[in-house]
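SUBJECT: protein chain
CONTENTS: sequence, structure tokens:
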Amino acid sequence: MNAPEEAYGGKKEVGPERTTPFDLARAMELAADPFGITQACAESARGWMGRPDELMRAAGALARTLTLVQVDWWLDLWTKGPHHCAAVAADERFADPLWSQLPPYALMRDLYLSYTHWLEESLFRSPGVDAATRRRVAFWARQWLNAAAPSNFLALNPVALEKALASGGQSLARGFAHFLEDLRAGDVQTVDTRPFRVGGNLANTPGAVVFRNRLVEVIQYAPTQKRTRAVPIVLITPWINKFYLLDLTESKSLVRHLVDQGFDVFITSWKNPGPSYANVTFDDYVTDGILPALDVARDICGAQSVHAAGYCLGGTALATAMAWCNRDPEAVPVAHWTLLTTLTDFSRPGAIEVFLDARSLAYLDRVMARQGFLDGKDMGRTFRMLRSNSLIWHFAVHRYLYGETPPAFDVLYWNADSTRMPRAMHRYYLREFYVNNRLVERDALTVAGRPIDLRRIRQPLYMVGTEEDHIAPWKATFTLCGLVDAPVRYALTTSGHILGIINPPGKASKRAYVAGTAGAEDPAAWQSRQARIPGSWWDDWVPWLAKRCGPWREAPKLGSARFPELAAAPGTYVFET
């Protein structure tokens, strides 16, 4: 998963690691261009050389664009004066008024943005190359353009220069100290970790670990109502990050909200695997992780079935488990289920596809073969590149050029608290899901001895997508609505992969959503028919759950004879680094 879209403004072992040893083998592999950037650019160049007429048209368009920018700049400067020389660009990198008030910087900004727009547009229609190569070239060109933005350089950034003058150079001294700190850490640090403590002001909803095996701890939360719904809720979290995104501060906790609404809630807290887990498979996560969690909740609550909810990768695994269970329709332990920003159809996975060619996967195989796992920080860096302006360069500018301390933001703290993924599991997941897209095929995957087909699923489904999701694009998640043989309610909310989900109700909510019955139809057509509702999708989901989670009964105690309390929440696995 990724850092949130809105940012910038404990227990020590929970935060991001502070030192990263230099990996010579990996450095050499990166120097060998494992992502095929050179090859893709060469193919694009050959395509342009083979169409000199298109090349001349593109060059002419660039010349006209840059000429018009300069003419407009001179006219504005002549008629309005330097304080109104250009409109503030719709780009947060140049939002400070100084970029408009100082004519040289305004011209530099406008030339840069015009050239960026022209180059990206040209690369997306490169002649003589396939669409995948076009997208790959455009992506890496965008990385270069983002890195080369004038806002990233001290001499070209008027805001940084003003701060340096106003502070007598202290902002630059602090920035250099931050740079050295990040050099030791091996990454641009995005959060001030000092105010946070897991089990203190994060992940503090009362409860207990009631099950533990080599892969997962299952946490049961203490009821806050004397009576609860008969059907418990089991939250299946992704194993790329710690579970407590769904139990952040008291005001942001989805777990606490559900408990306060009278639901019995259980959640998975996954083991942070080391090298000895290299051969743990995706099947293991289903059979030794998800299925036991469902069994634990049923036993403790005395329920025949549960409501299961999966988030991101946890949702993909839950969908797999649902198809697996429905091979025996009489023994499905889930009555109804929810998926949050979850891909099952990987034919349109978004910008991440630029990392999914044969060379990239071979590089990842070599890294995982040496380590036995893929570090979550590596995947985090990949996802940050998908939005490098807001998730990399924004922090670099504020930290190094402005000398500012990163924000103390709970979601950013959680995002930095990543976990590892076993080699065998992650290799299988990338190839069978992302590359081969076999989860949506009929009986194309065999999981724990059973061929699976999503079309066998009969249990009612509630799905949530987010409009700005670059990890699980909502139109791709929508595909499942037309595959399962069950009623589906889909909710589409504003914001992105994280902040769209962690969206508690309240008067101050900035969000809105649409929701309605969905099926095998065009997602844009479905969206156009729905009424936009201000507020949080939680307010739509909870009544949907209440209608299906049975009558009220006396709240169960923590644990049972079969599954006694083992430790207080948030457990032990969450503290492993």
About this structure: The CA atoms of residues 222 and 557 lie 8 Å apart. The first strand starts at residue 207 and ends at 212. The radius of gyration is 25 Å.
